[in-house]
Amino acid sequence: MSIHVDALAGQVGQELGVSEWVRIDQEQINLFADATGDHQWIHVDEQRAAAGRFGATIAHGYLTLSMLPVFLGPLLEFEGVSMQVNYGVDRVRFPHPVPVGSRLRARVSVDAVDEQERGVLLTMGCVIEIEGTDKPACVASPLALLVRS
Question: Domain 2-24+66-148 - what CATH class?
């Protein structure tokens, strides 16, 4: 769904969309561990993790957060914009671990729309859900600067 940048202010408090499900596998967790240097056993040692609290390895919280572009990309289609710039994240929480093999998706809302000299600063509410689990994997407020065309 595409929305004009000028209509965003009227969408505050509304859901922007829900992403497709994405599965998290051990290869992805291992690659993230290699990229970040975070090889904590709970993420990469499948045998030890199987005997641990979660019964399997779990994804890094920051891996879950780094999935935002995968989730947001298809949902952030705006008219009247020449460029979208990742402007950061205001708040991030990881309420529930993500066991290997889990499927995740994001539910995204418009939290705030602020006119800036360089464009429109969009603050989103993003809840990354784990299929079959009541608690979310991540709750974050990503920011995007939408440069008008």
Answer: alpha beta
